[in-house]
């Protein structure tokens, strides 16, 4: 029996480090990315297991388009000759997909049906440790409390940066001010309903629009997800005004990019698209 125990101890000391080393090596290996080919004469369709919430390419010679107003399961990829790049797509449930994209004159495949197993991860990591979960919840609560207080302060201050307004059928969308604080931008917004009908708000989204240069000019738009929304109404009664605040992570824009606010009416057509120059974003209050 003693001899067996000694042999077992020797086996553990000999092979356990190798097993640990092999596991560590396997965990550190990067996930290989599949390659998707596209060109400028055909649309390559990518079908995902969940609706697309965000999609962006790493280079201007690739354009990935998808429906930003109504989430859909597919997007279209086109490419111009140039160096290879990458495509990053985030689904509604937070699943992340990443691919290498290359230009190719002749395409043998025009449709990609992408399974959930191809996801490289999720933007909302699952924390199993109860202590970490508690700390994370406390951090969220503290941040939300700060956002509430600071947004209330901004609404009471009533500071304006100028005439940033857009009208449509008696509906007026105004960006009153843009304030930078810590690592966030605060957009103080007003919707005024001067019409004789109530206005049911479907969505108000902010996107960043990039103007693609070259012979095949196009626009690529990237939706910006708010961190917090303060006093956002679902309905603005006739002859009434609503003021609220959107909180977003800090960002800046080059002179070939601009911000786009899109106000959309539920079951109606009183929609507004407002363009904001990079000067307003880069010079907040």
Q: What would you say this structure looks like, in words?
A:
By secondary structure, the protein is of the alpha+beta class. The chain contains 3 helices and 19 strands. The protein has helices at 2-28, 130-157, 278-282; strands at 35-38, 44-47, 52-57, 62-65, 74-79, 85-91, 95-103, 111-113, 121-122, 165-168, 171-181, 184-193, 199-212, 218-224, 228-230, 235-236, 240-249, 257-265, 272-276. Strands 1, 3, 6, 7 and 9 form a 5-stranded mixed sheet that branches. It has a 5-stranded antiparallel sheet with strand order 10-11-12-17-15, covered by helices on one side. Strands 13, 14, 16, 18 and 19 form a 5-stranded antiparallel sheet that branches. The protein is elongated and about 60 Å long. 19% of the residues are buried.
